[in-house]
Amino acid sequence: MQINAKEQNVSSMDSFLSKNGIAQTIVEVGTDLSFFSQGEVADSVFFLQKGRAKLSVVSERGKQATIAILSPGEFFGEGALAIGSRVHLATASAVYDCVAIKIKTEEMMRGMHQDHAFSDAFMACLIARATRTQADLVDHILNSSEKRLARTLLLMADRGKPEESHTLIPPITQETLAEMIGTTRSRVSFFMNRFRSLGLIEYKDRIRVHKPQLRAVLLGQFADI
After folding, report:
1. Which CATH class is domain 143-224?
2. Widest CA span in the chain
3. Domain limits of the chain?
């Protein structure tokens, strides 16, 4: 059986932690429950093994925004490694049932100093997520909400098996998609129905993305179809 990059990353990280004696705890978080909340003291880093999680922030006025969707093979909670005040700047919660490795700050620091390959893998993960976040910001500034939804669906599909032309993405609600692209659930519903009528996606309980078609449309103008 072929192992994709994400599965290989999870397997490699499990092997490293076992080999180097890094103290860890396995945590299971059910759908819509939180690993940690915005403003809490950060004392651990997490590595997602199974499921799908999201990072979200809430403004002083109570407005919520999802700033990242996390896949297996990704680290989060890196605020625990900050110099000075260590607090979580976002809430990490399960989009659906998750299993993650929890590593205390001191153990994480020891592991990074002990093995440069581990340190490099951790930094590569953070840089990749920072790059995605920057691209998301540009997307919010320059593109319509319809194009932002198309791009989000493509990103979620590509985090599965990039070589597949038709990908069934993990369960995600229209409310979460609306938070991610900065619009309302009713607008997301309207766009999803439009995408389906154009043959760009299929969905019932879960969404199947037809990547070549959706990618081609994303490069053009929806109004021209």
Report:
1. mainly alpha
2. 58
3. 5-140, 143-224
Residues whose CB is less than 8 angstroms from the CB of residue 41 and which lie 6 or more positions away in sequence, other chains included = 86, 87, 88
Mean pLDDT by 10 residues, the chain (225 residues): 48 70 89 94 94 89 83 91 89 93 92 85 87 79 83 79 73 86 91 92 88 81 49
DSSP string across 86-141: -B-SSEEEEEEEEEEEEEEHHHHHHHHHH-HHHHHHHHHHHHHHHHHHHHHHHHHH
In the chain, the DSSP E strands lie at 25-29, 34-36, 44-58, 64-70, 75-76, 91-104, 166-168, 201-203, 207-210
Rounded Cα distance, 185 and 13, in Å = 37
Give the HSE-up count for residue 164: Cα atoms under 13 Å, Cβ half-sphere: 16
Reported as type and span, the H/E element at residue 146 is helix 145-158
Query: Looking at domain 5-140, what is its CATH homologous superfamily?
Result: Jelly Rolls (2.60.120.10)
Q: What DSSP designation does 41 have?
A: B
Cα–Cα distance, 181 to 172 (Å, whole number): 13
